[in-house]
Queue: 2 jobs
Job 1
Amino acid sequence: MKAQVLVIGLGLIGGSLAKALQRHEGIHVAGYDADALTARKAFKMGIIHSSPPSLERAASEADFIIFATPVGATVKLMEQSKFWDLKEGVILSDTGSTKQVIMEAAENLQHIFIGGHPMAGSHKSGVEAAKDVLFENAFYILTPGKLASEANISQLKGLLSVTKAKIEVLAAADHDHMTAVVSHFPHLIAASLVHQLDKESEYSFTRQLAAGGFRDITRIASSDPVMWRDITTQNKDMIVEQMDNWMEEMQQLKYLLEQNDPHAIQQYFHQAKMVRDELPIAGHGALYSVFDLYIDIPDVPGIISELTGYLAEEQISIVNLRILETREDVFGILVLSFQTSEDRERAKNCFARRTVYDSYIS
Ligand SMILES: NC(=O)C1=CN([C@@H]2O[C@H](COP(=O)(O)OP(=O)(O)OC[C@H]3O[C@@H](n4cnc5c(N)ncnc54)[C@H](O)[C@@H]3O)[C@@H](O)[C@H]2O)C=CC1
Ligand SMILES: O=C(O)C(=O)Cc1ccc(O)cc1
């Protein structure tokens, strides 16, 4: 494939995409960021082939332009793009977490626009967190605009194929409904739980007790506030609808507790467990591709460095590490996260060969 690609916004998502697109032979990936230091870093890290000083000039040379900026900035850039002297046949796309407002903005463009949302990421942001394998096995949603033909969609799919993501075409409204349920509204829950902890004034020791469960459920509250401000305001109606559903759910749960019926309460948890346990495992249909490996470990000094040392010797990278529980004399659970299922399998084999500890995939 021979093409000139311009990625605008070189943070976690733009940086990861730019790096992955370099897997195509013959493609030149130019990158632009409003923050000149980020653009310089991206170039030095080999994430982009070139860092053009003029956005307008770089845009005029591109066959594909991908906006990977916070969705508020993306809408403004799309407005500006009307004044750029773009190539005939150029395909514009984005990576934003919302699609309806973006696609409304696309209605006013004279050029082909196909909305995009790679549904993989993390609570981290910035070019330093970018990885070319970020989108492997994740869904990548496309929302074609009115000027996009089947051939144009195929062209963009061809470009994105090297990300190894699973590409699906959806209507923008359907996308925003589903992401409100599984991503946007849960983000508000995470943030609100942290606020609730912060307001706890009676027992100042409470936050010291915030253990695995609280950390798991609130991890995404550490994400970039600007990005989430934009997502929340752009998908406000769908999120408010989820909030109404949630309040109704809480009312029912409150009633269940007030009734103090142990059987009904157990049934509530049982039903939730069944649904949760049957969710597709990450990388095979879930939103985000992180491949977790659970290892039962004793609470002895040096155990974590011993295990991660074996992985380092076998050149297996981990993307995250956490301990679910450790108490004296009791085995704890170390959870190691890997970027790919192959890495997880290699780690599992490595521990089976080199240690006596059980490791398993939940
Ligand atoms: N973080 C995540 O896990 C995911 C994010 N997304 C979406 O991808 C987009 C980018 O998100 P991240 O990469 O996480 O954000 P980020 O904060 O890591 O990177 C955004 C980059 O855009 C640059 N930028 C901001 N305004 C700009 C402008 N007007 N012109 C040029 N550059 C500008 C910033 O300097 C920054 O380097 C957002 O729309 C987000 O909704 C999609 C999937 C996952
Ligand atoms: O870290 C996580 O689990 C995320 O929620 C990452 C994420 C953020 C925004 C998206 O549109 C998609 C994925």
Job 2
Amino acid sequence: MAVNGSFASPLADARMSSPKAGVLDGLASTALQGLNGWSVALSLFLLLVVYDQWSYIRNKGSIEGPLFKMPFIGPFLESVNPEFERYYAKWKSGPLSCVSVFHKFVVIASTRDMARKVLNSPSFVKPCVVDVARKLLRPRNWVFLDGREHVDYRKGLNGLFTRQALETYLPGQQEVYDKYFERFVQVTEQNGGKQIPFMTHFRELMCAVSLRTNVGHYIDDDMVKKIADDYYHVTAALELVNFPIIIPFTRTWRGKKAADMILNEFSKCAAKSKVRMAAGGKVECIMDSWVKSMFDSEAYRQKVARGEDAGEKPAMLIRMFSDFEISMTIFTFLFASQDATSSACTWLFQLMAQNPDMLDRVRDENLRLRNGDRNARFTIDMLENMPYTRAIVKETLRYRPPVIMVPYMAKRDFPITDTYTAPKGSMVIPTTWLALHDPDAYPNPDTFDPERWISGDAEAQGKNWLVFGTGPHYCIGQTYAVMNLMAMIGKASLELDWKHYPTPRSEEIHVFATIFPMDHCPLTFNKRV
Ligand code: HEM
């Protein structure tokens, strides 16, 4: 046997070598004897667990939430595969409730009034999207600006969503719908006339429409397809709570790679748009519209500087932005719209297939506005005069709101109620579902009833209409989003027949950044004759 074959510590050896040691010495050495590396680590760990629980309970205060949290990670594993029912149970548990995941304390504001309070308190909170979004969109992106800076930047973008601007984007959108509607029919044919889940096809369609609207023809169809495919990784990276660092080959890593690729492409588009707009080209997309107003502003400024008659002052004087700045901002439009519009599009097709009488009314309205010519192109006038199609879109957005949570961050201690203050640094998440399913505002809220927007008083329930948020960060693309969905479903009603194949999971909700039918919407499409 080896001489030093025991695990006795040097301290133990010391005690044995000192038989005359006193009682105190004995006690001290017994205590010290336990102080090997493992026990120090264990004690530290226990201290941290206690601290973690203590700080959770202190932050939780009087609001709803589990009494104890799973040490450190909290319900992280649940948030990897979020279930709608769990979220719903949380919202129903109280107007304010909480969880703590890793280092993040999260306050959930569920009711209409709590959600509105958060969204309308810019001096206490700012949007934080989700943690990883900052890495994907880049920390210097305008959506992370706060206060005056945010207001000023946003003013410069408002011109991109006026009636006049939206009109210039319509031809590009028609072109995309023409192509994809044909493709939907082909997909069904290639599948032997059998149904397949269409959610991913709708996501691609919405991405293609977004890209055409945002960057026109500066990217070709192959790149549209590549971005639509890769964008999936961006969405997948957007879980509510992520691991704090980006680890290679994880979802967040793939999302970041996809985001970098898209930002790079959009920078190239910005350079092309500058060349085309400088040469007096026609505005065809959001990027052109913005670049043109940069040039108009610059021309005005130079004339004023030279003392010349500068003519009419542009509605908004903006500075020149670099290609990458333009790219970052355009990426926010794609980012903000892609998941939300894909969700709305999927539910819209499903709901219309389930309600053929409603679809007939959409078709009649659209045909009438086209004077009976179903191939007539949609125009802005038409889209402004479709009360029934509008009601269908608004009811879809109410019944299945794409954005169910809007994460904000407390910039300082935020007294949400008289009895509860969300601590500085916590995530504060207003939710939209309960406001949009409030039976006082929308009787029989779980029934899809577009009529409430025509003969009912749904339109008067502005306080509950949180589909696009409220306050200084309300959705800048909301008019465009509603109009685009109306244009899509109106055109589809005239050119396509589609059938839904319900499954037991068709009405269940799959949370994937936004919400989708759990079975991803099995459909077949045929050309309408
Ligand atoms: C059905 C489709 C859409 C839904 C449901 C939706 C919903 C929302 C919501 C809930 C917010 C947060 C508002 C808040 O914090 O109060 C938001 C913000 C935003 N949305 Fe949308 N959105 C949609 C489509 C779009 C589209 C098509 C665009 C772009 C063209 C867009 C651009 C934005 C931007 C840039 C913001 C951030 C605004 C800011 O921070 O000032 N959204 N949207």
